[in-house]
């Protein structure tokens, strides 16, 4: 009698639930967007850091010249004189996305500037990423877990660090693409629909377009498939097993085809070792599928004979193929792996062999505090989430577990890959939190209702299990709706029902906790969540919102802003010729081309090690040799970042050893020990003569002693070793307000070549007088600075 | 905070001033548009030199130079007003001056040269430190022994007064028609003065007149206590310098060699049978002054052009394997007008860190040099470079940047013959799949 009523009420509750989750998702989107606006509010709407400037420049080009010109863009303003084929060496996903956004806005008559679009692309996509996380987690563990995971992801600090407004980098859209690809994979796995498989391939294509991290997907998904085969999860149900595998094949084929369309990937999609796994698994899947198919049509005896035959022949063929493969791979010097990927497998690889990779701080292994900083309480919730994933274990949850395990490993290798860990951690923690809340609220409910209505218990458990197995339900309905041929369907259905019943059995057996304990536990969980929110907001506001081209410090007399970088770039763009070449360490290449619009020798796209080594060698050489190197590259200006005056630690002196290492890697006359005194890197009077005479030292500390009279470097906290010296081949043309950027010009070769006769005394005295005058002038300036600071 | 803009302003002002002060160095001031009416300042120790060296001066005046004679001590000397140089050339016939009058000093003279102006400097046995320093700054080292003069016991000029053999007859000229004129100087040049040496590493300075192998530099009145520091052909008597900005300098160890007396005197080199009625001094001095004041050997290159074959405009970017044409016009200043420069050794480089193409340009005898070549199969930022350095001529160094891009995605060949098996494979697979589908679906 009450059956239709209860049905109606559950339907109503479902409707309410759907509307509610829709609004929750909307709010999550708003939260994800707005928490990333701290940088705009605290600083200004400006592109951050280094790489985003390049992306910004590329986007400007795209919008100005169109897609085809962008594709064929040969940039003659970087990597002078080699130039760079931007169209073929850039991941175009981000740029095309922002370009499309800009076009949409303009077609709606919303005249946003390119910069605005670029600044806000990352927050928009982090909202999308939260929604994708919701979808993925929903596929794994139901709506509740999905919503929790989405909330967590919307403000996980690790992701915020890469997607604050202005951080216009590939990761901004790639994390969304990553999660969405995984979602579609799980969806395909759960539904077995070709439609989702195709969507999956397209999402994977977008990911390939956006970020080099796509190799993570192309290795993780085969691993999961392999895991499924090895654990025999499908062995009794051959055809159901075949479905995801079949789709998997679809993905490999379609995905690879699409991937190779991206110019930057091109034939790498079939040539490098990173992609081998997917092809290997592709073959294995077919072998397995074939084996099961043959097993189905043969009698057991025949099958045994066939197996021995095939195995013996197959082994021989495999060995031969493997030998050929190994020989091919081994013949290439890096074994077909790219340096970054190699350092993933062997964390010490990069620091041993490729200084240019090791020199980037985000390629270093992370420290423990950085885990706490970047994922905070999630680190504690992840294990619980993994446990939750094991009860019950489904294809989707094995995938989630695999995802978290691999990403934890990779994040331990490179700080940068913390970003891949963050969504996994959010999903796991979302599952854990939602399961915990589930258990606690159920036990509260049970305790409260249990006294009056004991028979309801069972029902409560049932509803719960129903709600929780939403996925499973949809699966059933979808499966029944679709008239799909063959026994596949039936088998799947059977499995699903079995699964569902298994789940409810487990549910029933679950311990019911005492009321007080549940209440306290819920309180603690809420508190934990509150801590997380507080930490995230703090991280978003304080730690990760600095654009790094503008720096601020707080002192007794308030906030002090250091805008030296833009000052220097503006000077360059206003005071130098359009075709002048500016040499600097590669970190500042992108900014120089984007902000000063001047040609640079090397930039942050470190594709040519030799060229970077040339600049590194020049910086580590004495003045004359350096002048010759720079002159051969037609360099007019040299840009040096110096933090010793204000205590800005990531300056060129601190990066100098990397220049020496990278330079020495190609030009062996630069030897690292020459720059170290007893293995110590120092710039004081104990420093080696090679160090004191290197160009970098001279350009950094030229006239530095005039600032405070003793040359005290506030980064290294020492007095510099060589205080009074003159430059013979370079001349200072500009030093910014806080001495953070110093620009030097190469002197032209001497007009006359002097003979050997010494100067008479009167001339020397005259020269000295002139120097003195200059220094006095600068002391005046300096007192001005000091006074106003 | 208030002081911040002020400070930046001061810094930028300071830098601007610095820049302004180096700007004149960059300008090249031999102005071929106004070849006549060139002003030359002549500084003399003694105004009597004006008459004793009048032949040399009048030869300059007859060639259109306005000479402004001043005593070296004259307090009214100034070569520069409001940042503009008042003179195109400077002749220092004041070997014994310690300090110039007016605002001119060592630095002033060097700045004058570094801004592209020409200089003739003559020293003699009592040359002052100032003169020696100017010479040294130009790469010419006079003998440090201040009392030394050049002596040649086997190459002296026979003269009425049997002396110390310091009046020498030098005939070891540089073999260059550009510097010394096309007419060879038959008679030796009579030289009396101090010798100098040049650093062989110095590529800018040239020995125009060198002493014979038997010459040495020493004090003729005292006995030689130690071997002389300068001996033989390493002694240069007259040298010229062409600075990097093409300013030309002549430095002579003898002021007397420009005098009317030696211009007119006959010469007989000891040991030589031939007696010349007139010394080579006048011809030598006139010809070399022509070179110094850019009346000979001054080249200019204009209209550097490049374009794709079949087009006229200069493209912003080339594609690899494009065919291009390159042309440049080179003229030489004849003293009165620009005449086409004719040579067969002008080369153009298509340069990116090293020359990828090096081609000798062919000329139409009217100043136009041209060639055509194929852009190499390498992309990057290339330069068209013409580096032309020949003895006595001004240095031509031109470069023009022109990037070379790779093929666009739609510029490759659509079908390659060698790939036909692959095309065949893919199309046959497609057809096969189609047939298979039909057979599988409709064949029970």
TrEMBL record, chain A:
Domain of life: Eukaryota
One Pfam family from the record: STT3
UniProt cofactor(s): Mn(2+); Mg(2+)
Location in the cell: Endomembrane system
Keyword set, alphabetical order: Glycosyltransferase, Magnesium, Manganese, Membrane, Metal-binding, Transferase, Transmembrane, Transmembrane helix
Residues in STT3/PglB/AglB core domain copies: 579-638
Entry EC no(s): 2.4.99.18
Cited InterPro entries: Oligo_trans_STT3, STT3-PglB_core, STT3_N
Catalyzed reaction equations: a di-trans,poly-cis-dolichyl diphosphooligosaccharide + L-asparaginyl-[protein] = N(4)-(oligosaccharide-(1->4)-N-acetyl-beta-D-glucosaminyl-(1->4)-N-acetyl-beta-D-glucosaminyl)-L-asparaginyl-[protein] + a di-trans,poly-cis-dolichyl diphosphate + H(+)
Chain segments annotated as transmembrane: 20-41, 85-105, 117-136, 142-160, 172-197, 203-231, 252-270, 276-294, 306-330, 371-391, 398-415, 510-534
Domain Oligosaccharyl transferase STT3 N-terminal: 19-428
Membrane topology field: Multi-pass membrane protein
Pathway this chain belongs to: Protein modification; protein glycosylation
UniProt record similarity statement: Belongs to the STT3 family.
Protein name per UniProt: dolichyl-diphosphooligosaccharide--protein glycotransferase
Organism: Penstemon davidsonii
Automatic annotation (TrEMBL), chain B:
Function recorded in the entry: Subunit of the oligosaccharyl transferase (OST) complex that catalyzes the initial transfer of a defined glycan (Glc(3)Man(9)GlcNAc(2) in eukaryotes) from the lipid carrier dolichol-pyrophosphate to an asparagine residue within an Asn-X-Ser/Thr consensus motif in nascent polypeptide chains, the first step in protein N-glycosylation. N-glycosylation occurs cotranslationally and the complex associates with the Sec61 complex at the channel-forming translocon complex that mediates protein translocation across the endoplasmic reticulum (ER).
Pfam families: OST48_MD (PF23358), OST48_N (PF03345)
Cellular compartments annotated: Endoplasmic reticulum membrane; Membrane
Domain OST48 N-terminal: from-to ranges: 40-292
The species this protein was found in: Penstemon davidsonii
InterPro entries on file: DDOST_48_kDa_subunit, OST48_MD, OST48_N
Functional pathway: Protein modification; protein glycosylation
TM spans (from-to): 12-30, 420-442
Name used for this protein in its record: Dolichyl-diphosphooligosaccharide--protein glycosyltransferase 48 kDa subunit
Membrane topology, from the record: Single-pass type I membrane protein
Quaternary assembly: Component of the oligosaccharyltransferase (OST) complex.
Similarity remark: Belongs to the DDOST 48 kDa subunit family.
Record keywords: Endoplasmic reticulum, Membrane, Transmembrane, Transmembrane helix
Predominant place of localization: endoplasmic reticulum
Lineage: Eukaryota, Viridiplantae, Streptophyta, Embryophyta, Tracheophyta
OST48 middle domain ranges (all copies): 306-444
Presence of keyword DNA-binding: no
